[in-house]
Amino acid sequence: MTETLPTFPAAVRIFGKDGTCSAIFLDFDSSIAGIDWVESDVKGLQTWLHKCGARWIEDFSPNGGRHVYIPLEQRVSFSEARDLVEALGTRYRTLDKSPHQNLLHGCMRTPGSPHKRGGHQELAMSLNMAYDVARRRNSARVWTALQSDLAREIAGVRSLRLEQPFTPTAPDVPSGPRLMGRMSRTMQGMALSGLYDANRYGSDSEARQAILTAAAATGMKLTEVERRVLQGVWPGLASFYARYAARHRLTAMKRDWASAVEHLQKNQASKPRNNNAHKSPTSQPNTQPLGVDGVLVSTTPDAEHRFIRTWRNALRLRERSFADSRIGLARRMVLRALGEAAHMTASRFIEFGDRSIAVATGLDHTTVGSHLRALRKEKDPLVTLVEKGRGTKGDLYMLTVPEEIKAVAEDLAWRKGKIHALRPVFRELGLPAAFVYEALEHSPGLSTAEIVTVTGLSRTAVREALEMMAAWNMVCRDADRSWSVVVSTSLKDLAEYFGVLEAVAAQLQRYRVERERWREWLAKNIAKNVLLPSPTDDYPWETFEGPPDEWALADMAFTRAT
């Protein structure tokens, strides 16, 4: 940067040639959800930074956007910075995460820069204060506090990468003198960008070891690798060594290089010259991604279903602490709806809006939203918000097994059968009846006292639910005074008799109309103006609290067990 004010829009790169950054750059974009939303997000961020003891610099642009800079005493790696910013993106809707997601091209417009719409980027504080923050940067203790407070969100965004396929993009792997030998484009891309397939490499250490092994296999020398790192040709590889002090990075690279060479030599020595050994026709080829050490990382639907069943064990353990009240029962049912949706999509990640969950639980969509907010704010939640909904997409949630009960949940036997949200007939019979019926489905022959223990409901609620369901021949009492489900009674037929199916269809139709109105509004306003509405605009926010979801879960409402 020069002392002369630039005449064109100017920006600085976030990451240096060593793949690290000395500040966190947060860009709040008014084109995402309007100026008022930006102001709200920035105020929330300021409160959070103050709580963590951090100091920051702030500026604003003529179009209402804002930048927040968090200078750091110690430089941090590309991976650490990206994790933190992506985690913050789950809290603040208008935060643009892309500058910290690109090691080579991520940049930020600085105060004093001309803006493309006229005017300049201006400080939102005095120059003396901004200079003091830049001079006395945030310590390592503050950085640790920021990471600790975002630990849950960071775990969520990391898990999301495990769910998504990794495809290196061509622009991040330039051709020319930087590419040499027989090193694959994937490895070159990792060395350049610092991005890698989280399903294949479990950490930065594994990714850097894979790059060095690939480089050694092509016949490159250690000095050639060191030159590329020091000259900024491979900033991605350099970022993987940012955890070490600068004077120790080359020493650590030499150690990893020796391991890579030793690994190649062992493989070469153990490789038979002519392998004519008979292969059993029953041996199947491995189709799972392998880490550097050959450890299998399972990302199959079966693995997801196993995780979801373990999560269901955690739900059984945790829900005993829910209050025996209307709110507590509703939150238990919301969690069941998320579990059922996860099984349907074979993924722990659920991207359904409030209206979808409302159809599945018989609740109002505004009530569902308040329950989800409360559930994700618990100390050790069963669900984590990974990304807020935008446009026509709903919020992205991840099922989470709390650490405090993880060991117990994994040791428990999986419960047989499906997990159900609120089946239509129980819209008429009530939530207590739904939980009692569920308990008898999974464990026939329970006494009234045992049902009270399993469901966590009061004895009065259980007795009333049993009497009501017995009157409709849904459950019966055996000779030993235990209760069982009458499997010949159709829940769907009863729901139709009660008129519940018509109510569900009316709810679906209402949401369908609202969805079309939302899309029409988006198409009309986005086409004319890139700014999404703010709460002060004429758009009926009290009617539409957010973007509806794509999948209305009608099949969940009408095809659950009969």
Helical content (DSSP H or I, runs of 4+): 40-55%
Rg, Cα atoms, Å: 28 Å
Q: Ends: how far apart?
A: 70 Å
Largest beta sheet, briefly?
A: 5 strands, antiparallel
Mean pLDDT across residues: 77
* Model regions low in confidence, pLDDT < 50 over at least 5 residues: 163-181, 274-298, 527-562
Report the structural category: alpha+beta
**Shape call:** globular
Q: Figure out the total of helices.
A: 23
Q: Please state roughly what percent of the residues sit in beta strands, choosing from under 5%, 5-15%, 15-25%, 25-35%, 35-45% or over 45%.
A: 5-15%
Q: What is the count of β-strands?
A: 12
Strand order of the largest sheet: 5-2-4-3-7
